[in-house]
Structure formats: C-alpha cells, structure tokens
C-alpha cells in the first residue's frame, strides 16, 4: 500500500507546494522519497512493539472455557478501573457533601459506604449539619452496612457538642416514629437515641487537664458571660471536642454544692436544655385545649411568668446562630398565632451572648424588683458613685436568687457567680443619652450645611410616607399588632424594660413553638429552598426567597424561626381594608417614589422565586394566611405542610401550579408592564438554573423517601 502510494505520488500527483498570501510560489517543502522512508520507519516500529507485547503476554490456548475466563478478566479490569475513577473523584476538590450523600445513598458496596463515612470527618460541621436529616434517615431505615458507616461520625459529633447531641436525638425519634412499635423498640435509631439521652457520649478523657476544668473551688471569670465575644466564626472544629467539659462530671458534692451527687454518672449535661424544651412544648399542648384566643393568651402569659423564675440557666434557643444563655422571657409580649385547630405561639427571649454556652459561666439572676436600682447605679462608672469595682461586684453578687432549686434544669450551675463589668465600660443606658451625644457632635461641626427648600419638602414628604402604619388590636387575632411592630422598635422597647438590657452582650431572639403538627415536611422544604437559593446565587439569578430554620423535636412538635417585620396578606387586608396596590402606596409612597420602586422590584423578584418554589415542590394550601408581606415589599410563603402531591384532606382541588392573582399583577404594573415582563424573564432564568443543578435538589428528596408510609 505504501509502495503504490509512492508510485502514485511520483506519476500522477504534482509536487506539494505552499502558496503564501501574496501568491508567491515557494520551494518544494515535502519530498516524496523522504515521506516514503518515514512511513516505512513507522510501520517497522509498530511491528516491533506488537512483537514485544506478544512476548510479555503470550496468547492463551483456545479451550471451551476461554470465553468465560476472558469475560471474568474483563469484568475484573473494568471494576478496577471503575474503583480507580471513583477514588479519584472522592479525593478531588469537586467532591462535596451533596455528592457524598448521593454516593452514600446509591452505593451498595460496604467499602464505598465506609470510605464516605470516614470522608464526612473532612467536611465542615455546618455542611454536614445541613444534610443531617438525610444522614440520620439513612441510619434508621437502611441496611446494617449503612449504619456502620454513619455511626462513627455521629458518635464523634455527639461527644463534641451538646446541641448536636440533642438535635440528633430529636431527629432519630422523629424518623423512627413511623415504624411498627415492636420494630421501633429494637431499631438502631432507638438504641442510639437512648445512648445519647443517657449522656454516656461525653467527651473522652482528653478533657482531664486539657479543657477548661470547672473544679468546685475554681471560679469562673464572669467577664466571659458579660462581654461580647471577639471576632470568631460559629463553625466548631474537631479540636473543640477537647474543650467540651461536662458540668455533670466536673462538679462534685461539697459544702457549697450539696446537691451534686458524687460520681460521674448523673446526666446533667443534657438535662437542663431538655427540660426547658419540654416546658415550652407542654405549654403549647395546654393552650390547644382552651376554646378562645383570649383564654389562650392569658394562659400563655401565666405559664411563661412561672417559667421565668427558673432563669437564667444553661439553656439556649437552638434556632439561633450564636452561642448564648437564656436569661429572661418578657412574658407579656408573647402572643398566640392564628390557627384554626392548633395553638402555635411566638415568644421573645432575652439572651446574653457568650463564647461557648457549654462552659461559659451563667449570669446571676436579677429580680424584676431590682430593675430601677440596678440600672441607675450599675450604669454609672465606679468613680462616679464613690465605690470601687470590687465593692460593686460584691454587692451585685448578694442579690438573692429566687429560682426553684428543685427544678431539674436549674441545677446545672449551682455555684454563685459574681458579676463584674469592666472598669472602662459604658453602656447604651448611661445618663448621657444618645441624643445629647449626637447634639454635641453636631455642634462641633464648623462648616454650615445648606439645603434647598424644595429638597427639604421632598425629604419630609418621603419620611411621612415611609412611616409604617400600625395595626389595631383584634381579639380574634392578637398576633397582628405584635408582628406589625418593627423589630428594631421592639428590641429597643424590651431592652429599656429589661434588668439585663444594660449589658453589652444582650440580644433579643424570637421563636415560634408548634405542637400537634408534623414539621418533618417543613424541614424538607427548608432544605430544598436553601439549596435552590444557593443555586440561584451561584448562577447569578436575582430571585429572592427566605428559608427559615426548622427544628424538629418529635413527629408532632418543633420550633420555627419567625420571619421578622412581616405580616400575612390576610392581616393586611383585614386591618387596612385596602387592595394590595393601595397598601403598597400607603406604606412606600407614590409611584415615582424611590421607596415604592424598590419595594415593587423586591415584590417581583420574591414573587418569581416563590412561584418557582410552588411549581417545583407542588406546594398546596396557598391562601392569604400562608403568604407574608415584609416591610421591604417581599412576599414570603410559609407553612409547607402540603408538598409533593399531598393536599389538605387529599382533595386535590388546587390545580394551579402557583398562586398569581390579579392583585399581584397590579402591583407589578399590569400585564403589559415592564416589571411583569421582568417577572417572566426571572421565571425562565430560575427554571433553567434549577434544571442545571437538579441532582442537588432531587437527592435531598429522594433520600427522605426511605421509611415513608405510602
């Protein structure tokens, strides 16, 4: 073939030339004889390589079993290649927690499952915590190999953190509740839950001498409980396990601490928080038995008032993003939310931020009767009132503690803690008001500021238009007034009346307590919303949604993070007696006002986001009570109890993919408006982005199908 090719090139083909851009013929660059010689050399090399391969791997004798052996060898080589590729993927930087969950769920090989189980230790705690429901659901409902792969990581984290231990125990109980009672009693999930709640998963002996020891005679620096922590992240590393000291194992019976039993088996590490949560849940169950909203409200205030006598204690709100201790609940601010059959309620909780709630000292209780004297004297510097910081600390520590010492969740910290503020500290409640400070600052300015009269009138009109309206009290819906109040105003008002408000690390939190509702689907919806929010941010699609935290405590109770500065569309319509567009104009000003244009844009971007959420999750039961409107114009959908083809009483009467009413379109400017076209563009962009990353969303739902009752 090569000889014929060379003959043809010699006889028929003209010599190969290269023509430049200016059509100048160059010299011959390829010689046919040289090309023929090069081809012959290549063929000779190929022949030599083939002979060497045959010498290394001689051909097998052809027998009757040859096809079967060849197939086995081929399967082995393909399996080895597949394992090599998997290992390269698992060790690559692209391998994240979402991929780990997917391979852990789909793989049937114990070796791969064990490898991914060990790989969980390399991810951050926050990333794994997001997929904790999937992890524990696989542990409860899948085979023994899966359980053996997951258990070491879960046990390690339980030894490391009290908060993780309780969250794991609550989820294990919730996901095991659908089993038959005989199966549930002896299941892996139930056994691990009992092990956690028995408080046997305490930190290892590394805490003896490595972590901060709380010996009976040692004193806790009260500054840790009162000063705001320095710059830090909320991510807990594995090394924190060496610093997680259990109070139940470190406190011993002494003359000053007679209640602490000797030995190391008393489960005081988890008891305070468990009893605190049980108290809140039991209040919700009591409220559900009362007939009227007014009776429920009075009962709620009464129960929270009794609960206040047990605070401060080593308890916290699990929905918060920072470490803290609960010190007080302003019981008169709590309200019962609108619900037909149940009695969910919202409470406001005063907390003091701390470095680590498991080991930081708990502040001493300040009785309500001491509010005025404490705030008037303690806010002054020691030099101003003629006493030293030491004398003030001694006098502060003599305040009697009226807590009930027999309560199980108030015995965590028995020793008295002295309260001492730094000498140079001044709080926001000092005698010099912020107004006077601003006045002094303004008078020191030497340059006059000139403003046009028209600019002054415009700013005054905008300020009047921006003033939020207030709702009137409604006995049938007492929560409307509380939810309408701006959050900053609520914080300022509660802080002024609090005995702890003068402390610099004082914070106000809120939480909704629900009883009689299964929040497991709400938790699943929160995960899907959070994943879609991350996808849209990654793809730079300006859709707006607000995932709120869900804490599942059992199959019929839990806690929900409230959406601040937001009221339901039902409350807006009932209180204002206006259409949605007129309400926007009332709240944000005229059509040309910058505040109104911003609110309209926020409305469009959030409406498009939740339209896609309702379409992808098939969210049902969409009425005005389940759609909120915040102070910036966003709409927020809540109550995802009916998703993925389930509907109220399984009637299936809601056929629309999502809720888009004529009132919504009017706020956007009509069907022919630019903002409605913007809404349609956002819908398309968001759907394309979600489809691009659909595996991350699908695997969240797919794993949770294990153990569900069809």
TrEMBL record:
Its main location: mitochondrion. The keyword Transferase applies. Gene3D superfamilies: Phosphatidylinositol 3-/4-kinase, catalytic domain, Phosphatidylinositol 3-kinase Catalytic Subunit, Chain A, domain 4. GO terms for molecular function: 1-phosphatidylinositol 4-kinase activity. Its EC number is 2.7.1.67. It is a peripheral membrane protein. Residues 242-259 have a biased composition (Polar residues). It is found in: Mitochondrion outer membrane; Rough endoplasmic reticulum membrane. It catalyses: a 1,2-diacyl-sn-glycero-3-phospho-(1D-myo-inositol) + ATP = a 1,2-diacyl-sn-glycero-3-phospho-(1D-myo-inositol 4-phosphate) + ADP + H(+). Residues 53-77, 204-265 are annotated as: Disordered. Residues 61-72 have a biased composition (Low complexity). It is an enzyme of class 2 (transferase). Residues 485-710 form the PI3K/PI4K catalytic domain. The keyword Transcription regulation does not apply. GO terms for biological process: phosphatidylinositol phosphate biosynthetic process; phosphatidylinositol-mediated signaling. InterPro entries: Kinase-like_dom_sf, PI3/4_kinase, PI3/4_kinase_cat_dom, PI3/4_kinase_cat_sf, PI3/4_kinase_CS, PI3K_accessory_dom, PI4-kinase_beta/PIK1_cat, PI4KB-PIK1_PIK. GO terms for cellular component: mitochondrial outer membrane; rough endoplasmic reticulum membrane. Residues 1-198 form the PIK helical domain. Keywords: Kinase, Transferase. Belongs to the PI3/PI4-kinase family. Type III PI4K subfamily. This is Phosphatidylinositol 4-kinase beta. It comes from Oncorhynchus mykiss.
């Amino acid at each position: 073939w090569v000889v014929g090719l060379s003959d043809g090139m010699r006889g028929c083909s003209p010599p190969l030339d290269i023509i430049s851009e200016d059509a100048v013929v160059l010299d011959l660059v390829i010689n046919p004889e040289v090309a023929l010689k090069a081809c012959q050399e290549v063929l000779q090399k190929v022949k030599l390589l083939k002979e060497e391969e045959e010498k290394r791997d001689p051909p097998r004798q052809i027998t009757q079993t040859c096809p079967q052996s060849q197939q086995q060898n081929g399967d082995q080589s393909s399996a080895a290649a597949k394992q090599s590729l998997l290992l390269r993927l698992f060790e690559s930087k692209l391998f994240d927690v979402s991929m780990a969950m997917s391979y852990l769920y789909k793989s049937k090989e114990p070796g791969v499952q064990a490898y991914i189980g060990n790989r969980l230790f390399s991810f951050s705690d926050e990333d794994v915590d997001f997929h904790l429901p999937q992890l524990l659901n696989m542990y409860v409902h899948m085979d023994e190999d899966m359980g053996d792969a997951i258990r070491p990581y879960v046990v390690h984290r339980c030894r490391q953190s009290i908060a993780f231990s309780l969250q794991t125990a609550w989820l294990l109980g919730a996901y095991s509740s659908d089993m038959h009672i005989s199966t549930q009693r002896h299941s892996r999930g139930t056994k691990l839950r009992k092990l956690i709640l028995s408080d046997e998963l305490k930190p290892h002996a590394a805490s003896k001498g490595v972590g901060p020891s709380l010996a009976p005679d040692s004193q806790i620096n009260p500054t840790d409980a009162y000063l705001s922590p320095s710059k830090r992240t909320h991510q807990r590393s594995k090394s924190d396990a060496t610093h997680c000291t259990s109070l139940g194992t470190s406190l011993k019976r002494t003359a000053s601490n007679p209640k602490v039993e000797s030995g190391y088996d008393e489960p005081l590490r988890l008891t305070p928080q468990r009893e605190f949560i049980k108290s809140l849940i039991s209040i919700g169950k009591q409220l559900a038995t009362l007939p009227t909203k007014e009776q429920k409200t009075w009962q709620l205030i009464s129960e929270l008032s009794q609960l206040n006598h047990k605070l401060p204690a080593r308890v916290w709100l699990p929905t918060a993003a920072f470490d803290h201790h609960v010190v007080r609940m302003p019981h008169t601010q709590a309200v019962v939310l609108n619900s037909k059959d149940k009695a969910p309620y919202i409470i406001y909780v005063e907390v003091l931020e701390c470095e680590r709630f498991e080991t930081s000292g708990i502040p001493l209780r300040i009785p309500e009767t001491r509010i005025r004297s404490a705030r008037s004297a303690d806010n002054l510097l020691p030099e101003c009132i003629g006493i030293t910081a030491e004398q003030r600390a001694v006098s502060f520590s003599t305040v009697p503690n009226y807590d009930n010492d027999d309560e199980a969740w108030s015995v965590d910290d028995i020793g008295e803690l002295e309260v001492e503020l730094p000498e140079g500290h001044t709080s926001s409640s000092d005698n010099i008001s912020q107004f006077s400070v601003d006045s002094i600052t303004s008078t020191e300015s030497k340059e006059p500021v000139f403003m046009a009269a028209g600019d002054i009138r415009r700013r005054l009109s905008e300020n009047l238009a921006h003033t939020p309206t207030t709702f009137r009290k409604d006995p049938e819906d007492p929560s409307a007034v509380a939810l309408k109040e701006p959050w900053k105003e609520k914080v300022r008002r509660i802080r002024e009346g609090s005995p702890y408000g003068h402390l610099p690390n004082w914070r106000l939190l809120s939480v909704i307590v629900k009883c009689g509702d299964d929040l497991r689907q709400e938790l699943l919806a929160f995960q899907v919303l959070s994943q879609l929010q991350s996808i849209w941010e990654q793809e730079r699609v300006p859709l707006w949604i607000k995932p709120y935290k869900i804490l599942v405590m059992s199959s019929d109770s839990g806690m929900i993070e409230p959406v601040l500065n937001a009221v339901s569309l039902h409350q807006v319509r009932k209180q204002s007696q206006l259409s949605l567009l007129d309400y926007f104009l009332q709240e944000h000003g005229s059509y040309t006002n910058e505040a109104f244009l911003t609110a309209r844009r926020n409305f469009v971007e959030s409406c498009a986001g939740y339209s896609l959420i309702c379409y992808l999750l098939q969210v049902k039961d969409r009425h005005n009570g389940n759609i909120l409107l915040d102070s910036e114009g966003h709409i927020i959908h809540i109550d995802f109890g009916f998703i993925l083809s389930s509907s109220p009483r399984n009637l299936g009467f809601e056929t629309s993919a999502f809720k888009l009413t004529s009132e919504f379109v009017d706020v956007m400017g009509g069907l022919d408006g630019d903002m409605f076209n913007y809404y349609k563009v956002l819908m398309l962009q968001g759907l394309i982005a979600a489809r691009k990353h659909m595996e991350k969303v699908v695997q969240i739902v797919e794993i949770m199908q294990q153990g569900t009752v069809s």
